[in-house]
Design goal:
The protein folds into two domains: about 60 residues; about 90 residues, Beta Barrel (OB fold (Dihydrolipoamide Acetyltransferase, E2P)). The chain is built from two helices and nine strands. The protein has a five-stranded mixed beta barrel with strand order 3-4-5-9-8. A hairpin with a 2-residue loop joins strand 4 and strand 5.
Length: about 170
């Protein structure tokens, strides 16, 4: 008769074998997509064919595949077209101390020599770009994390900064 401990060991081994097979199948599937020159557009979930599958051949240097220049140029505003008069690093916050609640109004809390705990209100518009670890994209304030460190570049008028670029640090 097999003990409960023995049955638990057998079940654990079976689970590990199943997980290993799943990981192996996933790696095989991804390698086949690469061999065939296919890529998945993460924004749409559509699978597209690379124009040059040979670009994915193994090499000593990592391969970086960028979108077409026309797409890249239209997606990210160029520094020449924007007026940056504010650049600071600090913590981004969506918190009202008085009501102890989230307000949806983001602020940057930062320091300058001799002036601790300065803050500005952050204003996001359709041209605001955020890099939250996966490259610059149009900012979605709902993706920001309360208290996270960030570098903000923007146009300051009074106590408001219209965000041009926000990068998680």
């Amino acid at each position: 008769m097999v003990s409960k401990k023995g049955i638990a060991s057998i079940i654990t081994i079976v689970i590990l074998i199943i997980l290993s097979a799943g990981v192996g199948f996933g790696a095989y599937f991804i390698s086949q997509k690469i061999k065939l020159g296919l890529k998945e557009d993460l924004s749409t979930g559509q699978i597209e064919e690379f124009t040059d599958p040979e670009a994915l051949a193994p090499s000593a240097e990592p391969v970086l595949i960028l979108p077409s220049p026309s797409l890249a140029a239209s997606a990210i505003p160029t520094p020449q077209s924007l007026s940056v008069n504010f650049t600071q690093s600090g913590n981004i916050l969506d918190w009202d101390v008085a009501t102890e609640s989230h307000t949806g109004n983001w602020q940057l809390l930062y320091e300058k020599s001799g002036n601790p705990a300065l803050s500005v209100n952050l204003v996001f518009d359709q041209s605001s770009q955020c890099d939250l670890a996966w490259g610059y994209q149009v900012c979605q304030p709902s993706n920001l994390i309360n208290g996270e460190m960030a570098k903000v570049e923007g146009n300051r008028v009074g106590d408001k900064v219209t965000v041009i670029r926000l990068k998680k640090i």
